[in-house]
Input
Amino acid sequence: MDQACDQYEDHLEQNYEYIDDLTWTKGRHFMKFGFSAVHDQVYGAKLSSNIYGQYIFPGAYTGFGYADLLLGIPQTTTLSVPSPNNYDRGTVCGVYAQDEFKANSRLTFTYGLRWDLEPPYTDKNGKIYSFNPKTGALVVPNNGLSKVNPDFPTNIPIETASQAGYPEGSLMDFHKNMIRPRIGVAFTPSPNGKTVFRAGYGIYSNLIYANLPQNMNGGPFSGSVTDQNAITNGVPLFSFPDPFLPSSSSIAPPTTENIQGVNPHFKVPYSQQWNLTVEHQSAP
Output
């Protein structure tokens, strides 16, 4: 018999948006200007029922699970320590300017620039992590070191951002050169306007920093300890009322952990898009 392992998760997201656009027509020019800013706050809390312990009695020692329970000898026990709540936050800003210039009745040019600023998201409590392949250590923000799970394997080294030479707070560089041009042209070769040639080109950024902190959560801030029991000379390694091995026990098995990391100098990806079309109206 065993105790069910459930997990409670709470998630709350708040967005604050500021948008302003301006249109100005002057002669043959039709100009547009704009600004936008989005401040994003994501709160998250996870609470596993294993914080009270999980105890499995499959009948490994008496042949009957209920008998093992009465003896207080579980085969496996698991204990989790609550991880700090997530508090990811970040602000994305963008400005643009565009002009549609009508050279004549048959030729129109559209051109403009967009500049995006997307600082990498941070966690208020420093509860994000990355991996340093040079030292084989996990990297956490300076203020996140005190939040490390006390049950995290001691054989996995942990460094602060300052020690690893990583950017503090986000553990990633802030790229500010995200200036993207856009250009287009429309041309009608005949006075009746039934045939139109259109061409366009633009560079578009992929805003990814909002999702990265969610992938960088966990690591040394969460986890659990699972102990496997055994009986030697009639004496179990652990039993009730102390159904867990001490963390310093020499008979505890080696610990492992699945980890991931993000290049601190990760560049913002972008795509170049272009098109060329011919449109013709066949109907009178």
Observations:
- The radius of gyration is 30 Å.
- Confidence is low (pLDDT under 50) at residues 1-6.
- The chain has one domain: 7-280.
- The helical segments are 65-71, 161-164, 212-215.
